[in-house]
Amino acid sequence: MYCPGYTCVLCHQAHMETRDHLFFQCQFARSCWRYIYPGFTPGDNVHVNIDAIKQKLKVPFHMEITTLVTWSIWRTRNDFIFNGITPSLYRCRRTFKEELNLVFHGAKRKKYEGLQAWIENFR
Ligand SMILES: [Zn+2]
């Protein structure tokens, strides 16, 4: 498959859009993570980052949050590439909140005890 470019579209730097760059190293991604984890500093690889986020959040639904943040970054990237929508932290946060609320409403309440309170912190 041919792609016209492999440069990250979220930071407009000359960084190749790798998994680790797009979801953790990119300045845009860092800003997204700092929204839920103010001291976030990316580690060397995805496993280190996911573990650091787990340790910081200390909630049983940390993987759902991690997945939804990366999903929100991915949607922000795709909205720019395919729809011409300028990436913004506001839009990325809004996507995250919307998706998190969908998870909460579809979730078994016992597993996600504390999620509603966690969500309330971001309103
Ligand atoms: Zn970037």
Task: Tell me what you see in this structure.
This protein has one domain. It has helices spanning 19-25, 27-36, 46-57, 62-83, 89-106, 115-120. The chain is built from 6 helices and no strands. With 123 residues, it is mostly helical. The protein binds zinc ion. Zinc ion is lined by residues 8, 10-11, 13, 15, 21, 26, 28. The site of zinc ion has 8 residues, from loops.
Mean pLDDT: 88
Which percent range describes the beta-strand content? under 5%
Gyration radius over CA = 15 Å
Number of helices: 6
Protein name: Reverse transcriptase zinc-binding domain-containing protein
Organism: Brachypodium distachyon (Purple false brome)
List the helices and strands and how they pair.
Layout: H1 19-25, H2 27-36, H3 46-57, H4 62-83, H5 89-106, H6 115-120
Helix pairs in contact: 1-2, 4-5
Compact summary:
It comes from Brachypodium distachyon (Purple false brome). The chain has 123 residues and is mainly alpha-helical.
Descriptors for this entry?
61% helix; binds zinc ion; 123 residues; mainly alpha
